[in-house]
Amino acid sequence: MNLGVELEYDNLAVWFDRKTLHAMVQALVEAGVSVTWKESPEQFHLLVNTTDGLSDWKMQRLNGSYKLQVAGVPIHDSRVALVLYHFVEQAKGHAIIKVKLEDCILMKHVQYGEVVRIVEIKGAEKKMIYEKFCNVTMDQVIAALKRRDAEERIPVLRLELDYELATLFDAIKAEDQAQIKKSMEVLQGLRREMLLLEA
Description:
By secondary structure, this protein is an alpha+beta fold. It has helices spanning 18-30, 78-90, 138-146, 150-174, 177-198, and strands at 6-16, 34-39, 43-50, 53-62, 65-75, 94-100, 105-111, 114-122, 125-131.
């Protein structure tokens, strides 16, 4: 992955099993990053010492797996960014990754650990660089059926759908075409995830 000046993870949602979580901690340590952690029956609390200072990652423990879900994580430390990206892929997680370059911003939409869309933003201009053909594979259906935390994810997903529908309604009233398009894309992704979880 080509890293720019700054990397930011939005809508990050990754489910780790214990083995993968420990592998991520070990990868951070091997990359030269100082980490400390506390564990309780409900939570795994990871403090990552980046070049910007301490980054606090709290993971909820659900049915034997650990859920890392945060709205926005700016990461300037390339060591941490690369390790996190690798484990988002490995754990089949979801994220919107903003790569801030000198002259533009790249928005990478990752679903089930795979980049499905890359958008380049230069000033007010948006350009689609890559978009994966949208279809649900049998592997994704099986992964959704095997996922033990579907019961916890569905209520959160419904709230996210409600919020995005309200955002879309406001954008339609304000005739904000950019926000309408963005909300429609988000809703399509949430709809696909809901279909997989309720299958």
